[in-house]
Design goal:
A hairpin with a 6-residue loop joins strand 1 (59-62) and strand 2 (69-72). The chain has helices at residues 11-23, 28-36, 43-56, 76-91, 96-106, 111-126, and strands spanning 59-62, 69-72. It is mainly α and 127 residues long. It folds into 2 domains: 5-72, Arc Repressor Mutant, subunit A (Orthogonal Bundle), CATH 1.10.10.10; 76-126, no CATH class. It is built from 6 helices and 2 strands. Helix 2 (28-36) crosses helix 3. A two-stranded antiparallel ribbon has the order 1-2. Helix content is 62%, strand content 6%. 14% of the residues are buried. The two termini are 35 Å apart.
């Protein structure tokens, strides 16, 4: 498995990875049923996407039973870290502060989340 496979993941593949990160091992049917809740998609489309992801090394498949079970090979934290770094560089001219201010300005943030952010910033400033 290549270290930077997450570079090749499309938006649809990232949606599937998100499901696999949350649920763990899943069949194509299980992934498809979750995807259908948020967007219209055919079962064969989900199957084909997961087969492509297998070829890319984004997922692995257990074929020992009649129903094939898939799991993510990409680490969620590393993938998120890579995508955020890429976004900071490409969209916000390398400014993490701009990205954070944009994100906080455009989304409602709970008091708990704001407190967690403040605690994290305090920890960063103590380094």
């Amino acid at each position: 498995m290549a270290e930077i496979n997450h570079l090749k993941a499309t938006e649809s593949e990232l949606e599937i990875l998100q499901i696999l990160w949350e649920k763990g091992n899943c069949t194509v049917r299980e992934v498809h049923e979750i995807l259908e809740k948020s967007k219209e998609s055919g079962y064969t489309t989900t199957l084909k996407l997961m087969q492509i992801m297998l070829e890319k090394g984004l997922v692995a498949r257990d074929t020992s039973a009649k129903t094939h079970i898939y799991h993510a090979l990409q680490n969620q934290e590393k993938t998120q870290q890579h995508l955020v770094n890429k976004m900071i560089d490409n969209v916000f001219n390398g400014s993490a502060a701009r990205m954070v201010m944009q994100a906080l300005g455009n989304h409602s943030t709970s008091k708990d989340e704001i407190n967690a952010i403040k605690e994290y910033l305090d920890q960063l400033s103590k380094r």
